[in-house]
Design goal:
411 residues; 2 domains; alpha+beta; 14% strand; four-stranded antiparallel β-sheet; 13 helices; Beta-lactamase; single chain
């Protein structure tokens, strides 16, 4: 099992299923209600059936038996996504069927080249992000640095999260937390009942501490900080606590202020909370597929909205550069972003959520799905092939236009 993508976060454990009688139908459409007619009683989304996931992934913030959420408010007007020349993608229907895709939006040079939905989902709905949220949380660190709330990535984490003082995180920097290289022991195997994720599910928060801080402060050190990469969703949750502590604002509020409103996101988003009321920073943002795509445009713009630099001018250049190698040739990990050696970068979540960004081609591919398995099925490899297919189509278009442009110039 690839732990690199298996990150519904510590907080997914807080999405406790307490029985079919505890389900709230508020605002759900007929299809969603029907798909959830037989709710499971287990505690983990990974054990839901495919039909249950089909329904729940579009309604996580409306299932009151799961968890509460904070609203990420949108502004009065959405930013334009002009329609470009349609991109003809061979065998796209078969690809979407194989992915169990609920939505794909492809932007190129700021224009919509392709948009299509499946599983009864559409542009008006919100689909849960899983670990795609990690890249948004990382971006809020950049915003907090730009705003002066966080002084430096070299600062010790415990400076901003006092509850970690005296723990293995005493010598860990903000940057090491962002790159998941703290060296603190952590087991994210969701099939191991003795893993940290499984034990956290039932852990009771210490008095006065957030649930994540309470658990993470008790973990032992396994490696020297900065020397070893280990995927750790708990640490992304700590990043979220760090940002909230530094800014004195809930993550949802800060995300709305820095990105959702000024960039013109189309719909409000929601961010699910853990058992002590903190946004689950490593997971669980619900948003429209078009707004997934707008995040890609924000990255391509270098984190600038109009004349306002929301993050430091060099933030995304650093955040999307390989900092750690995790064993897959041509790939790496930056500040909560997955990197490709060709300069592309991706935000990725289990079951097929993703934002692929290719600066060279000014290309963004936002996709949501409900894969047959969280990470270990064939869909992940097929998606990488799809990314390359779209890149090749863009290149072929550019090559076809080049002789025409040359001829006009000669004349």
């Amino acid at each position: 099992m690839k732990k690199g993508f298996l990150a519904p976060a510590l907080g997914i454990a807080a999405l406790v299923l307490v029985g079919a009688g505890a389900f709230a139908y508020n605002g759900l459409d007929k299809e969603t209600k029907g798909a959830l007619a037989h709710l499971p009683t287990n505690r983990d989304v990974l054990f839901w059936s495919i039909p249950q996931r089909d329904a729940a992934f579009r309604a996580m913030d409306r299932l009151e038996f799961l968890a509460k959420s904070h609203v990420v408010e949108a502004g009065p007007k959405a930013s334009d996504l002009p329609v470009g020349t349609p991109l003809a993608i061979p065998n796209i229907d078969a690809y979407m069927q194989g992915q169990r895709s609920s939505g794909i939006v492809i932007l190129q040079d700021g224009k919509v080249r392709f948009e299509k939905y499946g599983l009864g989902f559409d542009a008006a709905g919100r689909w849960t992000s899983f670990s795609v949220a990690k890249s948004y949380t990382s971006t809020l660190v950049g915003a907090a640095i730009q705003d002066g709330y966080i002084k430096s990535l070299s600062d010790k984490v415990s400076t901003y999260i006092p509850g970690l003082k005296g723990s293995a995180y005493d010598d860990v920097t903000v940057e090491q937390l962002l790159t998941m290289s703290s060296g603190v022991s952590w087991n994210e195997d969701y099939e191991d009942p003795n893993s940290d994720v499984a034990k956290f599910n039932n852990a009771k928060a210490d008095a006065g501490l957030d649930a994540t801080t309470s658990y993470m402060r008790k973990l032992p050190r396994a490696h020297a900080p900065g020397t070893f990469w280990n995927y750790n969703t708990g640490e992304t949750n700590l990043v979220g606590i760090l940002v909230s502590s530094a800014t004195k604002k809930p993550l949802a509020t800060y995300l709305s202020e820095k990105l959702w409103k000024p960039f013109g996101m189309e719909q409000q988003a929601t961010w699910i909370l853990n058992s002590t009321g903190q946004e689950i920073a490593g997971c669980c943002l619900q948003m429209a597929t078009r707004d997934y795509a707008r995040m890609g445009l924000f990255v391509l713009a270098g984190g600038k909205i109009g004349d306002t630099q929301v993050v430091p001018a060099d933030w995304f250049a650093k955040a999307t550069t390989k900092k750690m190698y995790y064993g897959e040739p041509g790939r790496g990990y930056g500040y909560q972003w997955w990197t490709y050696d060709d300069g592309s970068v991706a935000a990725q979540g289990i079951f097929g959520q993703g934002i692929f960004i290719d600066p060279k081609r000014k290309l963004v591919i936002a996709s949501n799905a409900n894969w047959t398995r969280a990470t270990d099925g064939p869909e992940g490899a097929a998606r990488d092939v799809f990314y390359k297919q779209v890149q090749d189509l863009i290149d072929a278009e550019a090559a076809a236009k080049a002789p025409v442009a040359a001829t006009k110039s000669a004349n």
